[in-house]
Design brief:
Protein name: Flagellar hook-associated protein 1
Oligomer: single chain
GO biological process, one term: bacterial-type flagellum assembly
Shape: elongated
Family: Belongs to the flagella basal body rod proteins family.
Main location: other
Keywords: Bacterial flagellum, Cell projection, Cilium, Coiled coil, Flagellum, Secreted
Structural class: alpha+beta
Length: 658
């Protein structure tokens, strides 16, 4: 019998065990390499050789080297990682945003309180220049606080755009590398064996890409390449070709950014609602929701404070007996045309009622019915379009729109009533004498009154106050069972209005009772039937006239912010400055808490998903050590087989030589 079959068996066995040892060594060397998948030699038995004594084996073949890989687990790990990066990015951004809403002495609410509290001293000493100067100082501090918050919001916005550009740069580089890996894999797969290391490299690149934006992958069984898609089916990588993402200006506001993609057909914006996962998506969502909401919340406060203070200032008299000029100035509502507009229309907006202006942004488009002075508006983002006349817009949102030029179908405008208010908030009054502390209307109790009522405060509250109908007389009537007392106000034109007064109530401005003469009279003590109070216009300022200063002080408890038009046509209560700021803090705080929780959960899920993937695809050093011993013994046994075959061959030679 020839010794060559034995030699062949030994050689095959040595090669097979050597291949296994080499693969085990590769596994051990890459045990800590990110993205490496455990490799394994596939051994097969060739068909046996028939002889008269039966079939004799031909040894072993090394068929190929495979990698331990589960496509489902790989996708799940990448998706979980993408969500974790989105949540941690959002958490980080919201933590920065929360710093804009400090509590205590550093808060906007406290600054507004300080300003209104300073007016208490003016109410006590209306003509005191030092008290008036303190008010202007507190007004400047409030303006500076609003401006600082507005600037910080602008800085956060610039930071978001910078981070988006950095992320897009990484995405484009990873897409290029994935496309290059696809090319290499397609060329290497032509010999019917899989290039395991290249496949691992591509999987790792896709995993890194998932940090920035969640992707879906579709393998091409024909050439081994992998298609990579984002945004609900938008091609990013197909075969050896990669598309390019870019950060482009928002069509309405160049300070904000949107994502666009470029291919052979040109550059087009991506719909951010189709993007999921990854830090890039989180930055985009943060910009379009949380950052914009914060800008609007601060702007709503700034608008309400400025308009209400200026309104009350205009209703009083300064030390020169003139109507007070504006104490604060803010920018008008911003109306920005889309860059794609075809018409020549320009739209402008003015605030008509600061208490109604919402912390919202709107998209304004032409009324499809063509009705004059009417628009189609939708809350941005995602609101349903509603056709509203300008009067309806004023009643609902405290804003008046006007259009010059012609809107074309498809034209749109971004209406931001309050987005720029905080950054533009300024003190416009520099002269302490210009502070309108005096009221244009004064009251005198009749010397024959029997009750204990005295005038606590009297001031104008809105533009319904008509000086031409003064002087007037308030006369009290019968007492009701609930201890309220009826009164009648007789004006100079002999018209009259009636109402009821209870302790703590107001006379002259009681919308619930249908009384609104544009002034408020509050009393100390209790009037009796027949008592009278005379009202008259005051065109001269006396040192004791502090009526309008008291109106300023009353703003601390006045809900002049965030009112809403209800279904019954009435206005909601609204909020005071303190309530509004506390509500804003609570709103941002709840978002931060939610982001903290989501970041913790998604990070845990991502870690678990990666561990699950690694448990199947990763390298277990104990297992590899055991295999190392196994195949080392196999190699040694194969060597013994060759040694035995050599010995037999030598013996045959010695026999033949004799």
């Amino acid at each position: 019998m020839s010794t060559s079959p034995l030699l062949s068996l030994g050689m095959r066995a040595m090669f097979a065990n050597q291949a296994a040892l080499q693969t085990i060594g590769q596994n051990i060397a890459n045990a800590n390499t990110a993205g490496y998948s455990r490799q394994e030699v596939v051994l097969t038995t060739p068909e046996g050789q028939f002889t008269g004594a039966g079939y004799f084996g031909k040894g072993v073949n090394v068929q190929t080297v495979t990698r331990s890989h589960n496509e489902f687990l790989t996708r799940e790990a990448a998706a979980a990682k993408s969500q974790a990066f989105a949540d941690t990015t959002m958490q980080s951004q919201l933590a920065q945003l929360e710093k804009l809403f400090p509590t205590g002495a550093d808060g906007l609410g406290q600054s507004a309180n300080d300003f209104l509290n300073a007016l208490v001293d003016v109410a006590s000493r209306p003509s005191d220049p030092s008290a008036r100067q303190v008010v202007l100082g507190k007004a400047q501090a409030l303006a500076s606080r609003f401006q600082s918050a507005g600037q910080q919001l602008a800085d956060l916005q610039a930071g978001v755009v910078s981070d988006m550009n950095a992320d897009v740069k990484q995405v484009n580089e990873l897409a290029r590398q994935i496309a290059a890996a696809n090319d290499q894999i397609a060329r290497a797969s032509g010999n019917s064996h899989t290039p395991n290391d290249l496949l691992d490299k591509r999987d790792q690149l896709i995993s890194q890409l998932s940090q920035y934006v969640q992707v879906s992958t579709v393998p091409n069984a024909r050439d081994g390449t992998m298609g990579v898609f984002i945004g609900g089916g938008q091609v990013l990588v197909l075969g050896g070709q990669a598309q390019q993402l870019s950060v482009t200006p928002d069509p309405y506001d160049g300070a904000r950014a949107q994502l666009s993609i470029s291919d052979t057909s040109g550059t087009r914006a991506l719909d951010d609602s189709t993007l999921t996962g990854g830090s890039l998506t989180a930055l985009l969502r943060y910009q379009n929701t949380h950052l914009q909401d914060a800008r609007n919340l601060l702007g709503q406060m700034a608008t309400a404070v400025a308009t209400r203070v200026n309104e009350q200032q205009s209703l009083g008299l300064d030390l020169k007996a003139q109507a007070g000029g504006p104490l604060f100035t803010i920018a008008d509502p911003a109306v920005r045309p889309a860059s794609t507009n075809r018409g020549d229309a320009t739209v402008s907006a003015t605030v008509t009622d600061g208490a109604l202006v919402p912390a919202l942004s709107f998209t304004v488009t032409p009324d499809p019915t063509g009705t004059p002075d009417s628009y189609q508006i939708a809350v941005r983002p995602g609101g349903q379009p509603t056709i509203m006349s300008n009067d309806q817009i004023k009643a609902a949102y405290g804003i008046s729109l006007s259009t010059a030029g012609t809107m074309q179908p498809g034209d749109s405008f971004l209406l931001e009533p309050v987005a720029n208010a905080a950054a533009s908030f300024k003190r416009s009054l520099d002269d302490p004498a210009g502070l309108a502390a005096a009221s244009p209307i004064i009251a005198t109790t009749d010397v024959n009154n029997k009750g204990t009522a005295t005038v606590d405060a009297l001031y104008a509250v809105n533009d319904r106050f008509d000086k031409s109908k003064q002087p007037a007389t308030v006369q009290f009537g019968t007492v009701n069972p609930d201890n309220s007392i009826n009164y009648t106000i007789t004006l100079s034109d002999n018209t009259s209005v009636s109402g009821t007064w209870k302790a703590g109530g107001k006379i002259g401005n009681d919308p619930a009772a249908g009384v609104d003469l544009g002034f408020e009279l509050s009393l100390n003590g209790v009037p009796r039937e027949g008592d009278k109070i005379a009202l008259q216009v005051s065109d001269q300022v006396v040192s004791t006239n502090n009526g309008n200063a008291k109106a300023f002080v009353a703003m601390q408890s006045e809900p002049f912010l965030g009112k809403q038009l209800q279904a019954d046509g009435k206005l909601s209560r609204g909020q005071t400055v303190n309530e509004a700021y506390a509500s804003a803090i609570a709103d941002i705080g709840s978002r931060v808490q939610g982001a903290d929780y989501l970041a913790q959960v998604s990070t845990t899920v991502a870690s678990s998903a990666e561990q699950t993937r690694s448990s199947q695809a990763g390298v277990n050093l104990d297992e590899e050590a055991a295999k190392l011993m196994q195949f080392q013994q196999g190699y040694q046994a194969a060597a013994k087989m060759l040694q035995a075959a050599q010995s037999l061959f030598d013996q045959l030679l010695s026999v033949v030589g004799r």
